[in-house]
Amino acid sequence: MSDTSVLARKWRPKNFAQLAGQEHVVRALGNALSQNRLHHAYLFTGTRGVGKTTIARIFAKSLNCLTGITATPCGVCSACTEIDSGRFVDLIELDAASNTQVDNMRELLESALYAPTSARFKVYIIDEVHMLSKSAFNAMLKTLEEPPAHVKFILATTDPQKIPVTVLSRCLQFNLKQLPPALIVAHLQHVLTEERIEFELGALNLVARAAQGSMRDALSLTDQAIAFSSGKLEESAMRSMLGAIDQGYLFELLHALHRQNGADLLGVAESMATRSIAFDAALQELASLLHRIALAQTVPQAIAEDDPERVRVLELAASFTPEEVQLFYQIAIHGRAEIELAPDEYAGFSMTLLRMLAFAPSRVALPVKGFTQAAVQTAPVVQAAQPVQSRAAHVAAPVATPPAPVVPAAVAVPVLEQIVPVSTAAPVRYADDAPPDWNYLLGRLNVQAMAQQLAKHCVLDSVSEQQVVLRLAQEHKHLQTKMATDNLQTALSDYFARPLKLSVVLGKVEAATPAKIEHQTRETRQQQALDSVASDAFVLGAVTELGATVVPESIKYVNQ
Ligand SMILES: [Zn+2]
């Protein structure tokens, strides 16, 4: 691997102490060197730019330093300086990925049998070793089977799967890790301070993220940024150089999704378009932000204390359910994969956002910023009051009931006062009556995706003062998870404004479940769509005059 970057070359670590990260490898190699327990072949694996060849060269110095085999090569003896400058005759460095060297690879490996010219060990560093030809591997294997005491192989690869097992089994393997962004930032800070180049920390954070765990890439990006800027590395300049998305847009998008406000959502997308932002990159960044939100929901400590976006990430983590975050993440990565199929990037991007909006579980009590907690809490009571007034109608025609408009909680408070003067005492009681219509009731519950699935496949057996009993067919037993049951129980207690225990019993389900009703509605609409296409004058004309046929599967009703 050639380093095009000035900084990467200049700041290439010359000993183990200077190396950033990979402590597990450094410790193991250091122990082996100081106890003189040396293997004859080492394999360093890991993605590009994580330090494989750097460690290999330091190791070569450790083996050949004139002060003796050591974990801390002196750096000043002829062996150390010659290795540093690439002039050491007994260090043979090969790049198996380069065509120019492949031809004589076999001869070079066969020459391993000859003793080193002057050094203690003849060291072969072979980068991207998985690219070696079969004959080259055979030549190496011959040496590895009966290794001469004076030969050391240090192999490096990004793809260990492609190395023959016969070779793998004769190597001591070390897996180098991707460098965490914080470590890259710290190293860049050190380098830039030494170089007397001013920088904004935000700029380094962007570089570290873009480098994806590779220190070499991070240094080379920093090099470019220095050339690109006039003396100081600024976050805004770095952003435009990297084509990075202003995270502010992404937060705005998620806030609009949370408010379920389509106009705001498209407004943000449009202002991104006027800034000619690359939309596939925007979807990638959005997915990456959602990933951080999901981490924050599970382990809040996963978001570093000094992360400049920590507060905003935690805020979003609190306002979405884990299911929503998972859903948005899925939609974002699929949207990105499909963006090439879209009529144009903007269409692909905005359709992806609209899909998130369309599939987001609707919130009954919308906890929107600015609404007081009290208002949010009273909301279910308001809705609970509605079935009392118009229940007869629902029982008569459950399917036909149009969904009640979502009443924003803040507006709903005065309405509540008109209906029930004492707002806290408005539970709906059905104990002496047939249970309410489950399909209608479910539409008004604030439940998460899995609880929704469970509820949809149940019928309502009874509602009493303390208990709600649902019945679920044996075939849908898998939906009855503790998480779904708990969530549904909470939603029911909220709705009826009293603590309720939910029991889901398994049994024969004959009445139509909400899932069945939904299915039937869809079938009916599909049939209507088919009928209307079949009776369409244009279609009839095409069929009779042009011999066209109607492909039923191609007809889809449009949900209005
Ligand atoms: Zn030395």
Can you describe this structure?
The structure is a single chain. The protein has 560 residues and is of the alpha/beta class. The chain folds into 5 domains: 6-175, Rossmann fold (3-Layer(aba) Sandwich); 181-242, Helicase, Ruva Protein, domain 3; 247-359, Up-down Bundle (Zinc Finger, Delta Prime, domain 3), CATH 1.20.272.10; 373-511, GMP Synthetase, Chain A, domain 3, CATH 3.30.300; 515-554. It is 52% helix and 9% strand. The chain contains 25 helices and 10 strands. The protein has helices at residues 6-10, 23-34, 52-64, 78-84, 99-102, 105-110, 134-145, 165-168, 181-194, 201-211, 215-228, 235-242, 247-258, 262-274, 279-298, 310-319, 322-338, 345-359, 373-396, 409-419, 438-442, 449-456, 482-496, 514-534, 537-546, and strands at residues 41-45, 91-95, 122-127, 151-157, 172-175, 198-199, 232-233, 458-463, 467-472, 501-506. The protein has a 5-stranded parallel sheet with strand order 2-3-4-1-5. A 3-stranded mixed sheet has the order 8-9-10. A two-stranded parallel ribbon has the order 6-7. Helix 3 packs antiparallel against helix 4, helix 13 (247-258) runs antiparallel to helix 14 and helix 14 runs antiparallel to helix 18. The radius of gyration is 33 Å and the shape is elongated. Bound molecules: zinc ion. Zinc ion is lined by residues 65-67, 73-74, 77, 79-80. Residues 65-67, 73-74, 77, 79-80 line the site of zinc ion.
